[in-house]
Every structure is written in structure tokens, then in C-alpha cells.
């Protein structure tokens, strides 16, 4: 008897019931229908494809742009006894070949692919011969040029429809405007429109937006008032360190995080924050994707995000436990001006894009007519330093080169060392007898890792060193010697981005760049910036403003954002502020900062004005920086 979706959910994930929309989406997939699911961050998107795929024969192919997230999901599935593998940039041809063979002839249930892998003829041909039950497209907004994070490799997903015409698509995203919703379905070739959408309203989030000259001071007051753990988003790597240092100097346990740190540092910092050893993490937008920490009480933006989609997703990392949480956006006039300045970096001219291509080819010493399908580690900072290029402008140029299929650049991600024996058991035993030095290492590998004769396995040199009493360096040398003697294949770890040439090198003056596409993207980005300004300036409820942007006509104010709170006290704010100051100071004299933090009514200028009036009227005394209420 076939198991029901609920039985699968209970057996492998231990849950007794589905979250909203999960069951409805799963039902559509089991009927073989193309489906688009719009679910908020932390809404349980992955179960929408994992559960039905476990009920069907064959393998589910999952497309995700985030290598770290792919690896986490594969690891979590394996812990539950479900066979899953991933193919991403940085793997060798042979690793990919073996992994794909296991998907065709083995018992693999989930194959995770980065979208760049679909450029490969090997991957396409093997998918054609697989028993595929579902294509799951995560972060599906990336396929639309009207999405906030358009990724050109996502356009290759149409090939999946050609390879397996009868297999349904499940597209999933947390952020999509009506225009993007339509575009996703068209790009993926849905036979009919089929959208399941959870409201973009987050009832437990109180959105706050403040124009503030002294953002650091305001940030500190917010953190002290809120309690709990939180995230602070800033513009660049340098700023992460400066803000974290400021918080530490003011007694707040904080740390910084950005993509320039090595993988061990990033994992250590992330783990400390996840387990509440660090209260606040100060990060660029490289942080947060795929991190499911439920008890985040605040997310503070110290700079204006590039789009409302990005803001909604980042702010949505607060309050996943459904308890009240506060996304707070602090900005000043210079931040507003900077948004338009950044627009120029996002859309460099055609000559600059051609020049970047020329420099990339020279960087790797690619000859004219050569280079097709070659893959290299790519250090963006080193590349920009060598050719004296602006980093942000160069990133944009690389994206347009990617869109026109000249090259592709994957994200930087940690890929552990991999290992596979290349001889059979008998040959390996002979080698152990003849080379006694390697015997303890070979035995440790066999005891620690299963399947080393059949496929590449992740390998930890530090653990092996500890087990056999050798140094990390000695283990690395021994593994390389085993490879030289063709006993095994050893691929050392890396955390570099990968750059792949999709075409043979041409003269950069003859390089075709789609200028019409660039112009349409620029016009779209200008629309996004105008939407951000509207969100900052309009006087309607913040939740309503966000919902309208995503196509929902909500009319009920949230009652808890900064605008709703201000509206509730409009007309008699000063009297209420005066009463609250009286209650607070009768209970305990305080300095100005503590008093302002404890007040819940009115904006800061009204609070200060009311406080001065009370002093002028002789109702409050100020001595040595401490305010107290005079009781008559």
C-alpha cells in the first residue's frame, strides 16, 4: 500500500501536520501539474517537493543557486535516511560523471543542481536517461528579468522541459510581484496557470522606518529596548567590522560576517550566533539565506536596500517563531542619494563590459579560439586589483557577459576535500602490504567513510590526522602520493568562486552584448528604486504598502508599524507622552537615554519637546544628568 503524504511527513520529518499551503501544493504535484508556490521565508518550501517525491518512483531534480543551501539540504536528507546528492561548480568531470551514473542506476531520490550545471552537455544527456519524477526550482524569481535577483543561468531551465517533457515543474519563491509570477510561468512553459500564494502579510512583524542622522545611537537604543538576538545589515565589509566594534564597546555581544571571510571563520561565527553565544551579527546581505533561526527578535537595516523584494526577504528573517519581532530601517538623506549613484555601477557601458571580458581572458592566458568549457578558481578582488577595476561595476559586467553566454561565475562556497579509491579491494590490499606507511591511513578512511570504492566522498584531513597520530600536512602529502601512484583520487578542499568559459575566446571588439536587454533592465531597476522611495515617504501602513507592491489589495492596517502607532496617538500625543514620563520617573529617576528607551509613545522630537516643557513648568528636576519627577 502506498504511503500518504502525511505518513511520509511523520516518518521522515516527525511532523503531525502540514503548514498552510504545503498540502495543497503537494496534491497538485501528485496530480502531475506544473505549480508555482509563493511562500514567505521560513514557510517550509522544501517539504513541498521532498514529500511528494518520496511518494513517487524516480529522482527529484532540485535547482538551487545557493551551493551552501544545497549542501545543507543534502546533508539533512541523508541524516533522515534519504539518498541525496548535489552537483555544483568546483567538482571535477569524473565526480559529476559518477554522481550522474548513481542517479540513473542507483537509488538516489534527490539530485541538487546549481543552474550553471545545465550548460553542460554531459549533465543534459544524463538527465535525458533518468527516471525523473519532479523538477523543483528554488528561488524561482531568478528566472525573470523583472525579478530582483535575475540570474542568467536560470534561463537554461527550459532545456529540462525538452529533456523530460512529461515531468511537472514546481517553482518556489518567497518574493514575486504579479509581473514576476506571470513571467516565471511563461519562462518555464506551464501548460496552464497554477499559483498557490500565501499572503505576504506577516502578522507578527512590526515594521519601523526612521530617518535618523545618528543611526549608530538609534541602533543601540533599539537593540537595548528589543532584547533577544538580531541581525544588522550594512552596505559593505568594512562597515560590518566597524558596527560590530561599536556594539562591543557598548556592551552588546556582537560579531561581523561577510563573504570575504574564509569558510571556517564564517561557520564559526554563524554557529555562535545560531546558538545565542553572540547576540547580534552584523553582516552584508551575504548572510541569512537558508539560515532557519526562529527566535530573531529584530532585523535592522543601516542602509536602504536596493529593492523592496530584498528588504522583504531580509526583514522576514525576524520572527519565524511567529512571536512579535521588529524589522527596523534607519536611513538618512545621503543613503537616498547613494541608491541612484549605485545605479550607474549596476549598468556599465558596453565598452567597459567588453574590456572586462578581454581582461578575464588575459587573466587566465586564454588563446584566441580556445577556452571553451574550461573552469578556473576566480578571485574577484585579485582580478580587480590587477586591472584596476571597480569591484561593483565589474560584478555587473560579469552578469551581462553571463546573460549573453560568454562565461558564467558561480558563488564562492566551501567545497570539502573529496576522495575515491581507484583500485579494487585486492589491489588495495597488495598496496597496504607493500607500503606499510599508508596502511593506518587506508584503514582509517575505510572505517570512517562508506562507499569510497564507488563514488567520491567528503573527507576531513584533520579528523584522519587525529585518528592515526599524524599532522594535517602529513595526511595531505600521503593522500597526494596515493593519487600519484593511481591508488586513489584526492581533490583538496576549496572555497573559491568558479569561472567557466562557455565559448571560445573572441576579439573583445567583436563581442556581442545585448544592449536592448541592458536598457530594459535599467528601466526596471529605476522602477524598483521609485518603489523604495515610495515606501519610505508614503504615510500608509507599512504592511499595506508592502502587500500592495506584491499585488495584494489589503486594506486593514497592521496597527503596530511606526505609522500605525503614530496615527493611533495623533491629536493628543503630548498629553500621553507627559503622562508616560510621569509614571516612569516617579518609579525611578533616569538619564536621558534610558528615559527615551522606555517611552513607547510619540516620535523622539515630541518626547524631547514634552520633556523640556515639563522642566520649564518645574515638574521635572535635572541633577548630574539624571531626571526625576518632583512630587508636590
From TrEMBL:
This is ATP-dependent DNA helicase RecQ. Pfam families: DEAD, Helicase_C, RecQ_Zn_bind. CDD domains: DEXHc_RecQ. Transmembrane segments: none annotated. Residues 215-358 form the Helicase C-terminal domain. The lineage of its organism: Bacteria, Pseudomonadati, Bacteroidota, Sphingobacteriia, Sphingobacteriales. Belongs to the helicase family. RecQ subfamily. Its EC number is 5.6.2.4. It comes from Sphingobacterium kyonggiense. It is an enzyme of class 5 (isomerase).
